[in-house]
Amino acid sequence: RQGVSLRLAFGDCSSGNPCKFTVATDSFNGFSGTLLRIDCWVGLDDTVPLNLPSGLLHLTFGGTGLMEIPKNLLRNLDTLQQITFRRHKINVITEDSLSTINKGLRVFEIGNGDLDSLQGKPFQRLSKLAGLILDGNKISDLSPGVFDGLGELQRVNLRENRLMKIRRYVFISEHIKLEQIDFSYNQIRDIESNAFSNLNLKALDLTGNKFTVFANHYLNNLKRLDVLMLRRCHQLVKIEPLAFEGIVGETWRITSNYALTELVGDTFNGLHLEKDLVLDDNNHLQKVRENAFRNLSVEVISIRGSAIEDKDISKWGLGPGVKVVF
């Protein structure tokens, strides 16, 4: 019962089948660890506190059959830094759902489950939150204000949900520390104007979404974006002119978009990359129109695996010293 971590599996973890199990309120007396993981437990009674160790830093529930976030269980955990729910059955998080969680929590993770709704401003009281991991759920919409109050937020992971649109005012000027947003493998077709206004991001992942046209207002007023991942968007046929104007970054990857057949004039006009622009494996990319790369600041453009017919790069509007790799 003494030690750094403890994992309790109340069921068959290989199959993920939970079973009912009763734990006495003094079961954790004497446990002085900082990490506790509870798997495959459906007999949890949230009316009875478990007297979990006050020095606990990371608490994980996996495959427990939880229908809602327990409240009494999480009381008095004043040192808790991260709480994780995986393989869960929680459908909704409201403004009351997290009311007993330590206000100093740094990471909240709930993934691979049934979550489909974030109501109101559910995370507002967790003002110290740096990481918000919501991957592998069924979330189809983010309402404006859903992340209000999170001035310390640095990372948001919404990978593999059902989002169809990114609305404005979801991310606001309050999120000045936000560095990474993962929207990969959703169903996103549209991004409202100014959705990322005034953010300074290190990484934005839009891989595997449903864009047909990447419009020139999707990233408008975004100040900095070190890494853009726009990959495997198999319905993407066009990137509009000036879609990236005024953005400063490092290395961008716009790759494996099989429906993309041409780059129009001024596609990358006004983009300033400190390293590389990678356009590899756009297998049906046949044409690069005149001045597609005009006013693009970059060291190397990699365009391997394309079907470009005319490779006369003198027409592309390249700046001096730019290296193109086919």
From TrEMBL:
Keyword list, A-Z: Leucine-rich repeat, Repeat
Pfam family, one: LRR_8
Keyword Ribosomal protein belongs to the record: no
Keyword Repeat: yes
InterPro entries: Leu-rich_rpt (IPR001611), Leu-rich_rpt_typical-subtyp (IPR003591), LRR_dom_sf (IPR032675), LRR_TM_domain-containing (IPR050541)
GO CC annotation terms, alphabetical: plasma membrane
Origin: domain of life: Eukaryota
Protein name in the entry: LRRCT domain-containing protein
Organism: Bracon brevicornis
